[in-house]
Amino acid sequence: MARRALKLASLAAAASGIYLYGNKFLDPNDFGVVRVGRAIATTAVITYDYLTSLRSVPYGSEEYDFLKSQIKELFVSFEDTPLGAASLAQVHKAVLQDGTTVAVKIQHPKVQAQSSKDILLMEVLLLVVKQIFPDFEFMWLVEEAKKNLPLELDFLNEGRNAEKVAHMLKNFDFLKVPRIYWELSTRRVLLMEFMEGGQVNDRAYMERNGINVNEISRNLGKLYSEMIFVNGFVHCDPHPGNVLVKKCPASGKAHIILLDHGLYQVLSESFRMDYCRLWQALIKADMKRVQKYSRRLGAGDLYPLFACMLTARSWESVNRGIDRSPVSASEDVEIRSNAAAYLPQITQLLNNVPRQMLLLLKTNDLLRGIESALHTRASASSFLNMSRCCVRAVSMYQRSKSHSLYRRAQISLTEALSLWQINLYELFLWLKGSQLGNWVIALLSWMHHST
């Protein structure tokens, strides 16, 4: 075990040395204030481990050559150039001795040493701004960073998250999560099954490979609705580099590959139920319940703004029903213009809502960006999937709180009827948009006029 640990330590140091000194992809600013900004935006996290002691091995030295040679004992081949690189880690493609192709994720060696300084600097700067502008309400950023820093770059935690979400969503056969090789992983080195595909926002890739864009958008919505509303365990970094798509040659089915499981949000039961009921109210355009559950989530009198932030729709569209029509270009312009005008109120909202909401807002924005790139934004199917998950989640909660067999049966019947209504509405929308539906409508119209 000690020998394997030494090899892994050697691997991290040598690969980082190759990356830093050989390819020169890394911008030094990544480890300064610029990286802090990125860390805030993604609530990135850093952890301690033994690899930092090897960070200063000089390129080309005997020690460096020795460390690099250790890679050959673990791998048949190891690609020096990373497949992907960010300010915190890099991923290399490699082949194990048994011929298995793997992805090797390695933390940059200087991240930990810089992290405490970065957070302190961030806190000082925010305090200075707070003194100059008393209405500045972003001090919560520091607390969020401090809370999440011990998590995301603990790669063993990332591996556990990956296995948990794979088990949690095992009923979705279109979802693929890389297998973790635990015996070759540490807190700073993570070995995973190698998976590749096109980015989820690459519409041209999907068209070239015969992948149905609408199906991918629907399935992505199903995944996140299930995570948010039913399970309360949410992958919070679905940017296109972390969500890939690929058509399976054998089955012809399109798979969604979910990567980078370092950042998850665990939702409390009370928060999840309020959030479920708020979205049900938004979809039904029930303004009384929108106000009620927005207030329960900390929005107060700013509940109209909160509803607009969640849906990325105008207040007029929210009142009319967000599933009634897709977002227009003029509405998009209106939303962007109002965002600048209401910045103080948005800041106040972010300061008042539960901390769990912050990562959900970020997740919503990333998913919305994918939908915009695929031209599937605000489609009725996404709201229908959300409705199903909300109905199921609320019913599960009510059954868990009921001790009466009769009451549980009543809840299950109500749930079945609600799901049936959603399915019927979905069928109606499909018929309305299909050629068959046009024929049926034309036939009914002809029969009506004939009589």
Can you describe what's shown?
- The protein is of the alpha+beta class.
- The chain has helices at 2-23, 33-42, 62-74, 111-132, 140-148, 155-168, 203-208, 213-231, 269-284, 287-296, 303-311, 315-320, 329-341, 343-352, 355-374, 380-401, 405-433, 435-450, and strands at 75-78, 84-85, 89-96, 101-107, 175-176, 189-193, 198-199, 233-235, 243-247, 254-258, 264-266.
- The strands form 3 sheets. Strands 1, 2, 3, 4 and 6 form a 5-stranded antiparallel beta sheet that branches. A 4-stranded mixed beta sheet has the order 5-10-9-7, with helices on one face. Strands 8-11 form a two-stranded antiparallel ribbon.
- The chain is globular.
- The N and C termini lie far apart (86 Å).
- The model is unreliable at 12-57 (pLDDT under 50).
Looking at this protein, list some descriptive labels.
451 residues; alpha+beta; 11 strands; four-stranded mixed β-sheet
Order of helices and strands: HHHEEEEHHHEEEHHEEEEHHHHHHHHHH
Distance between the termini: 86 Å
Structural class: alpha+beta
Low-confidence stretches: 12-57
Q: Estimate what percentage of residues fall within beta strands.
A: 5-15%
Overall, the morphology is globular
The helix content, as a percent range, equals 55-70%
Strands, total number = 11
Topology of helices and strands:
Layout: H1 2-23, H2 33-42, H3 62-74, E1 75-78, E2 84-85, E3 89-96, E4 101-107, H4 111-132, H5 140-148, H6 155-168, E5 175-176, E6 189-193, E7 198-199, H7 203-208, H8 213-231, E8 233-235, E9 243-247, E10 254-258, E11 264-266, H9 269-284, H10 287-296, H11 303-311, H12 315-320, H13 329-341, H14 343-352, H15 355-374, H16 380-401, H17 405-433, H18 435-450
Parallel strand pairs: 5-10
Antiparallel strand pairs: 1-3, 2-3, 3-4, 4-6, 7-9, 8-11, 9-10
Helix pairs in contact: 1-3, 8-15, 8-16, 9-10, 9-16, 10-11, 16-17, 17-18
